Amino acid sequence: MLRNQSVGGMSAFLIVCFTILLILYPKDVLEASQNGLKVWSESVLPALLPFFITAELLIAFGVVSFVGVLLEPFMRPLFNVPGQGGFVWAMGLASGFPAGAKLTVELRKKKQLTKEEAERLICFTNSSSPLFIFGAVAVGFFHDATLGLLLAASHYSANTCVGIFMRFYKRSAPPSQAASSKTNLKMAFHALLEEQQRNKKPFGQILGDAVVSSIHTLFMIGGFIVLFSVLYRILLVTGAIHFFSLIPSFFLSLFSLAEVLAFPWLSGFFEITIGSKLISDLTDVPLIEKVVITSFVLGFSGFSVQAQVASLLANTNIRFLPYFIARWIHGILAAVFSLLFWDVLYVRRWDHPVITTPEGEDVLTLIWMKTIEWFSQHGVKVTILSLFLYIFLLHRHRSPSK
Predict the structure, then answer these.
(1) Using an 8 Å Cβ cutoff, are 145 and 138 in contact?
(2) Cα–Cα dist 172/170, whole Å
(3) How many CB atoms sit inside 10 A of residue 35's CB?
(4) Is residue 124 part of a domain?
(5) Which residues constitute the domain of residue 221?
(6) Which of 14, 235, 254, 298 has an alpha carbon 20 to 30 Å from 116's alpha carbon atom?
């Protein structure tokens, strides 16, 4: 009881301090909010919305159950989760944070996962998307598309290892369904039809619910992006972040890494985009050291993403602690893998000619630059159209049927 009161009192004190700082630094708060909103509207929403809606529809029409039966012999022995986890894993890899958490919650609500299976699954199905690693980090920040292959290989290899490690987490807990080593298309179609029979909603309602749910989740994500952008700016203008950077500076010195990496590394603990950008901007640091720290930042994913996941888990009995521990493991393993893969995936690649256009531009770099340019030009339009669609569908959903 006393402990809860102390935590509550400390939380209230910190919130009051944060509110006072918002009043003292209105210009910085406004700029940080605008930057966070720009990132959300130009990149996050247009990139994630199609994946979220598609995933909702695939779950509603039983396609995930179909895939789950086929993947059961693979997912159960390797990760100790049902076959449906394969779909969540694939969608998480393709669309990035926090798609894996959202889909895991959806499957848990439909009782296709036990609490323990959901806690295992969520630990390795939340990762950075290829668009972010190749487009934003490798090309946008480091201006080197070849570096994207190294970062991606390190990131996804470490993520897979986390999933294998987590298979031992509460492995004695009963599974959601009996494990089966024999599957066929007939069993998979049977599972698909069963799911469709349970969901008797008309197609229009299913589509509307998918859009409303997806945009609602993206609103929450946008709120966290803006909040942590403001929090980071407050820590920066008050100088508090330089004080906290003494901690990572100590660990960098232990491994003989450049201590100038401490500040951008700490920034990456709050938001991966800011941290990765600051790391890439350093000029007097060897590239391999910057890659190692960037790999850790991508694996840890930042408190901003972790807060998004925690919010999604709030209405379930899925615990956040296993996910938080897994992020540390992911970050450390990704940093180690980047060292192991450095020579094979980056240094030796420079021994071979790079494919270029007639104008002499690197083709891979050009593709990613065009992708980023498209999101910059059309992302806001997609966001505005999505908002109008959300308001329309939400109004229809809440209006009494005649």
Answers:
(1) yes
(2) 5
(3) 18
(4) yes
(5) 25-169+184-398
(6) 298
